[in-house]
Structures are given as C-alpha cells and as structure tokens.
Design goal:
With about 675 residues, the protein is mostly helical. The protein has helices spanning about 1-5, 15-40, 45-50, 60-90, 105-120, 120-125, 125-145, 155-175, 180-190, 200-215, 220-225, 230-235, 240-260, 265-275, 285-310, 320-335, 360-380, 395-430, 440-455, 460-485, 490-515, 515-525, 535-550, 555-560, 565-570, 575-600, 605-615, 620-645, 655-670; strands spanning about 380-385, 390. Strand 1 and strand 2 (about 390) form a beta hairpin.
C-alpha cells in the first residue's frame, strides 16, 4: 500500500538533487537570518555569536543571547520533527501522516491547556508530562478509529484533522471562558521560537537527541513494514508492538517540542514529502534527508516570521503561522501523486447494512417543524434574568425580538443552508462522512476576515460580509482547479478542501497572537457568535436561502443518477463532470451564506443529512427536505443554549455545534470500521 501511494515519476530522481537542495536550504536560511546582523557586526563576530560575545558591544550580546539560540533551537526542533514525520509515514504506511495531521501537536497543546486550568501543579512538576498525555490521547483516538480500516491514508488524515479541529474548538472554548488566565498561553500556543538565553536549547537538545537516536535504532525493523503486515509478521517482526513503540516515541518527540515552543505545524509533514519529491526512496534516505530538510524549513519559516514582525506594527508574528502556511501547498503537492485513495469511510460500507425503516416525509417533516416552532417559542419567551428564569409575555416580544430574534432567525437559516449543502456533498461524493465545512470554502471566508482585521481596514459589517463571500468564492475557484482533473471525485475534493483549511488555521494562529478587542470579536465570529447578526443581515440571508432552495429542484435528477456510478450516469445522458461542478457551486453558495453568519466550523452539514437518513428518508428530495429542517433545528437549539447555559456570559453557537459535531463525526467514523 505504501509503495503504491508514494510512487513518483522516476524523472524526479536526479543525481545530487537532494544534497544540493538541503545545502542551499540551510545556507539560504542561515544567510537570510543573519542578514540584519551583518549590517552592524562583521561576519566573524556573527559566526562567533554561537559560542562567545563582546561584553562591550550591545549588538554582540544581543546576537549571542537572542539570535544564536533562536537559530539553534529552530534547527534542532526542525530536525526532530522532520525525523518524526518520516518515521510516522513509514510506520503507518501513509505518505500524508505526520504529528500534525494525526492530531499529536493539537493534543499536546490541549494537555497543557487543561493542566493550566485544572492542575497547575503538574506544570510545575513537568510540562512535558501533560503535553505527552495530550498527544497520546489524540493519536490513540486516531488509531482506535482507523485500525479496522487498515490505517488507510484518507481515513487516517480525516480522523487526525477532525480531532485537531475538535481539540482546537475545546481550546477555544476554554479561552473564551477563561481568557484572563489563558491569553498568554494561546500566544505561546501559536508557536514562537523567540529566545532570550541558551537555557531552553540546553534543556531541549539532550531530549531530542535521545529520542532521535531511539527512532533511528528502529530503522531496520521498520524496513520490514514495507513488505506488508503479513510478510513482516512471517519474518518475525512483532508489527503491533513495533507500531505502538514507534508512535509513542513520535508522540514524545512532538509533545516535547509543543511543551517548549508551542505548535509549529506541518514541519513533520513538509520535510518527508519534500524529500520524497526530490528522490529519496529507501527508508534510510527518507530518514536522513527528512531530518536535514526539516531543520532548514523551520529556520526559514522562523526567519520569515521574524521579518514579518519587524516589517509590521511590532506585533508578534508567531512561527506557527508561517509553518502552517507551508502545510497547505505541501498537502497539495503530495496529492498530485497520491494514488491509493480507497477505503474512503462510507464508500466501502455495504448500503444494505444500514437501511432504516422508511417513514413518511410528511410525518417526519411535521414533527421537525413542530420542534423548531417549540424551540423558537422557548427561545423568545423563556430566558434567565438577573434574579431568576422568567417567561417574557407575548405582548413584549416586539422588544425581545431586537435582542433575540435576528440571531435566532440567522441561526435557523444557517442550519438550513448547511443541512442542504451537506446533503448535496454527501450525495455528490457518495461519501456519508463528507461535510461542507471540510471543503475549505468556509475557511476561505474566514481567511479574508482575518486579513481585514489584521490590516486594520474599516469597511463595516456589510463590507465584511461581502469580503467573506468573495473569500469563499476564491476558495471554491481554487478547489475547482484542484479537483477538475479528478472529475470532482470525493477523495480529492475532501483532501483538497482540508489543505485549503490549513491556510485559515495559520490566520487563526496569527489572530490569537495579536490579541486585542478586534481580534477577540473576530474569534467570536469564527466560532459562530450569532449575537453579531443584525436584522438586515438575517432578512438578507432569508431571501438568499429562498432563492437557492428554488434552484435546488434542478438537482434531484443529477443526484439520483450519480448514485449509480459515473459510467451508468453517463450512459443515461448525464454529463458527470458538469453536473458535479454545478452541484459543487450550489453547495459552495449555501456554505458561504451560512459561514458569514455562523462561522466556518460547525459540522451541522455532517449531522443533518445523517439524521435525515436515520429518520428513514432515503430518496434525494426527501433527504434534502428533512436535512434542511434538522439543520435549522440543531442550530436553533445551539443558539438558545449558547445564550443561556452560562448566563450572563455567552458562548458562540457555532462552537457548541462544532463540539457536538466533532464527537458525532468521530463516532460515525468508528462505525465504518466495523464489518
């Protein structure tokens, strides 16, 4: 499996290409990093800053205690993460695996966050311990969810990234509730290599060296995994124990880094993929060149982060931002030669294994409408006050509408849009685990909002909504270009969308590091703070939703025929490529309309079509209708609970939906591993 997935054209392997690239990367990164210092110090003094300094020259002292340890720790950490990424790909037979895509780094940050709030004594004892515990929790969840599917590449990446999103949502929830305690923690969590002494480097290098040596010693037994699990076992390898031991070492390596400098994402993915693209084939070559390329990549990324901080208004640009920007292009490069995309969750499942009893759409729709109406009435009338819960008389609802009505209407409409988009995407891709939030369209909208805030542009709420819509359209255009050659197939769409979502992640890290009230408002929107919605925006969304719903009537035939397979659909006169493109456009407009109101990540688009299927709606039209009602009901409940659970404080409705949706996604993924 691994050999097929990573096979690349032989023409990429040129003599001396890898050594030359590694040398140029290291020398270029060092030169760019040292350039500002060469303006005030002679070259010999810059080089000697790594071991000595001139006490009478302030610049020399600064270079020795700030620049030199920062360069050293970047090279050290980059080499360690590059090695860990190469080993992870080998042990799982997955060319897209890395500590980041498996959720290890997010788990480490989650462990530190929880310990900071509930067990600070553990941090005083060892911050490595809590980070390792969080990393083990994350990768343990990935393995438990995907081992029945043989660690198939697409499934592992989906599980790892959703766990990353889920733990990120938990971290964000803690920050919104306990921001006064966790503000500095999230600046650190964005990934910063700023140093003011050599002590962190001296503490870290023995750990990295020991863990790196242990991983290298496992190289010989790891080579047997290339033969397949059955062949490796017949040759005496204890495959299960070997995988467990290796992954524990990878977690130790990654969590140790996270506990010291925060999340410097995707170095562990970028370095092995780059080494493989440049011609590294044997395990020995991949381990060696991934290690060296990782050091150079992280130093270059850190230097760019430092320059961005200098060129800007003085705000810190975390290294995690620039390294996250590497992740998207690297995933896209890896996808170009990615052949082994089978075992997509939901595709190999037998449809006959789960066929709920058919039920009347009229009855189911009526029940959902009644529940939605009840939720609307309770949300408008029953709410907590300063003294106690009370019922707002209907005669006062005109006043209550100003505070409760627009946000409730917008939440319902956003849920309807996401439910419809989710149904479209799941039907189009033939994958019941697909979700519009994972296509990267909402990430494009969020990234534009981040850029608007960071540049200080004042365009008003209407301008922000328009810009976010343009961002979603731009992400859609890029996604179409990426998926066009594969006829918009489900695997490439989802992985391409996840790659686009990485760019939004880098912007989110930058916002967390910048701080300030504007950044706090933006973060609230990104996680679905419906209290920002005005009546005009809610009514505009209503009009847009009605227009799109009318257009959805034209999708019933294409969606029905696509379920028969591309060949059968084409033989029946359906232009498959154009049909998928049109469906994708509709799903994108629905997702963008919801995103600018509820934020980029809620998983309602995943849950609503599943609920419709569970409720016995199997034909396209019936499932879309019930999905729309279920999505509206879910976000209406989320908005009400977000407003009342911790009154007088509030939680973003999208955050609550994301937490529930993340759990549902992982549960559903585990079900598809059971035959």
């Amino acid at each position: 499996m691994y050999a097929d997935a990573q096979r690349a054209p032989a023409s990429l392997r040129l003599p001396g290409r890898l050594p030359l690239t590694a040398i140029l990367l290291w020398l270029g990164a060092l030169a760019v990093s040292a350039a500002p210092w060469l303006m005030t110090l002679d070259p010999l003094a810059v080089v000697s800053a790594f071991w000595s300094y001139d006490g009478s020259n302030y610049t020399s002292v600064l270079a020795h205690f700030s620049w030199a340890p920062r360069v050293s720790i970047a090279l050290l950490i980059g080499c360690g993460l590059g090695l860990a990424g190469a080993v992870t790909q080998q042990v799982l037979g997955n060319p897209l695996a890395s500590p980041t895509t498996l959720g290890v780094e997010a788990g480490g940050q989650f462990g530190v966050t929880v310990a900071t709030l509930f067990a600070p004594a553990l941090l005083a004892f060892s911050q490595d311990l809590v980070a390792v515990a969080g990393g083990l929790l994350a990768i343990g969840m990935v393995i438990a969810l995907t081992w029945r599917l043989g660690f198939s590449p697409v499934t592992v990446i989906l599980a790892g990234l959703v766990i990353t999103f889920f733990m990120g949502a938990l971290n964000m929830g803690f920050m919104l509730l306990k921001g006064e305690w966790l503000g500095n923690l999230f600046i650190w969590g964005a990934g910063s290599l700023v140093q003011n002494s050599w002590q962190p480097f001296m503490d870290l290098w023995p750990r990295i060296l020991v863990l790196g040596a242990a991983l290298v010693l496992l190289m010989r037994p790891l080579q047997l995994l290339q033969l397949g699990q059955a062949s490796a076992s017949s040759l005496g390898a204890r495959v299960g124990l070997l995988r467990a031991l290796t992954l524990v070492l990878v977690v130790l390596m990654s969590a140790t880094v996270v506990s010291r400098v925060g999340v410097v994402a995707f170095v562990g993915l970028a370095a092995p993929v780059l080494a493989r693209l440049l011609g590294a084939r044997s395990l020995k070559e991949r381990l060696l060149w991934s290690t060296l390329l990782g050091g150079g990549l992280l130093l270059l990324a850190d230097t760019l982060a430092h320059w961005a901080s200098t060129w800007g208004d003085g705000s810190l640009v975390p290294t995690g931002t620039t390294t996250a920007l590497i992740g998207g292009p690297i995933i896209l490069l890896a996808l170009q030669g990615f052949k082994n995309t089978h075992h997509m969750p939901g595709q190999d499942a037998n449809p006959g294994a789960f066929l709920p009893k058919r039920r009347s759409p009229l009855i189911i729709g009526s029940v959902l409408l009644a529940l939605l109406l009840a939720t609307f009435l309770v949300s408008m009338g029953w709410s907590p006050g300063l003294q106690q819960w009370s019922w707002t008389p209907v005669t006062d609802w005109s006043e209550a509408w100003v505070w409760r009505g627009p946000r409730l209407l917008a939440a319902i409409l956003a849920g309807v849009c996401l439910g419809l988009a989710g149904c479209l995407i799941q039907r189009m891709t033939g994958n019941v685990m697909a979700s519009p939030e994972l296509l990267g369209i909402s990430g494009g909208a969020a990234l534009v909002m981040v850029l608007i805030v960071l540049t200080g542009t004042e365009i008003g709420r209407v301008g922000q909504l328009a810009a976010a819509t343009l961002g979603a359209a731009g992400a859609l255009g890029l996604l179409i270009l990426l998926a066009r050659r594969h006829r918009f197939a489900g695997n490439q769409l989802l992985l391409g969308g996840l790659a686009l979502y990485v760019f939004m992640d880098s912007g989110l890290r930058l916002v967390m590091a910048s701080g300030g009230t504007v950044a706090a408002k933006l973060l609230n929107w990104m996680y679905g703070a419906t209290w920002l919605v005005s009546e005009t925006e809610a009514l505009g969304l209503l009009a847009l939703t009605l227009v799109i719903c009318a257009g959805l009537l034209t999708t019933l035939r294409p969606l029905t025929l696509l379920a028969l397979g591309d060949t059968s659909a084409s033989s029946l006169g359906l232009p498959v490529g154009r049909a998928r493109l049109g469906l994708l456009l509709l799903a994108a407009v629905l997702t963008a309309a919801a995103t600018v109101v509820i934020g980029p990540l809620s998983f309602v688009g995943l849950i609503a079509p599943h609920l419709a299927r569970v409720l016995g709606q199997q034909t396209v039209g019936r499932q879309m209708l019930v999905s729309a009602l279920a999505g509206g009901l879910l976000l209406a409940l989320a908005d009400y609970l977000a407003r009342t659970l911790i009154f007088p404080s509030q939680l973003p409705a999208g955050l609550l939906a994301a937490l529930v949706g993340g759990v549902y996604f992982l549960w559903g993924l585990s079900r598809h591993g059971r035959g």
